[in-house]
Design goal:
Order of helices and strands: HEEHHEEEEEEE
Number of domains: 1
Distance between the termini: 52 Å
Structural class: alpha+beta
Shape: globular
Strand order of the largest sheet: 4-5-2-1-7-8
Helix content: 25-40%
Radius of gyration: 19 Å
Largest sheet: 6 strands, mixed
Length: 172
């Protein structure tokens, strides 16, 4: 029994080491269409340290949630998001993001970013680009779950960070 436990422990440690050696970088966004408000509400989950590194690279100086003044951090985050997460209507009109805020889950190293894009009409046919952290990590996997009432579709931005068209599957 002891030998089996040691084997399981060795296997677990080996898998952990392999996972660390081949880090997969991900971010996930949820986009909820609110037609009554003419808005697309976006929640984006990123790893906090990765996002800090992206902002620092852009700013040319260290950026940290714990040390950078909130107003400065938010301004950097807003600019970075405007450049790397875009929404256009089905007619091709760019939607200007409106910053809502952020929330840190320090224990999980997760930073949630909240932003809203004006979007009148149906979200079907809208164009979304999720290019966060691609400048840092060539293996960055970004995805957006788009919901409009009972309809839902997931857009995956790996390896291609170009914008994708929201197309809901046909109802069955």
């Amino acid at each position: 029994m002891r030998r089996r436990r040691l084997s399981v422990l060795a296997l677990a440690l080996g898998l952990l080491a392999a996972a660390r050696a081949h880090d997969v970088r991900t971010s996930f966004a949820e986009a909820d269409h609110r037609p009554e408000r003419g808005a697309l509400e976006i929640s984006i989950r990123v790893f906090a340290d990765d996002f800090e590194a992206a902002l620092a690279k852009r700013a040319g100086k260290p950026v940290a949630l714990a040390k950078t003044p909130a107003a400065e951090f938010d301004a950097l985050a807003r600019t970075y998001l405007a450049e790397n997460f875009t929404v256009r209507s089905a007619a091709g009109q760019p939607a200007a993001p409106r910053w809502i805020g952020k929330q840190l889950d320090d224990d999980a190293n997760e930073l949630w970013l909240f932003v809203e894009y004006p979007l009148s009409g149906d979200v079907d046919g809208a164009l979304i680009r999720h290019g966060l952290l691609r400048e840092l990590f060539s293996n960055q996997l970004n995805s957006v779950l788009v919901r409009a009432g009972p309809r839902a579709v997931t857009l995956v931005f790996f390896p291609d960070p170009r914008e994708k068209t929201v197309r809901f599957p046909a109802a069955r």
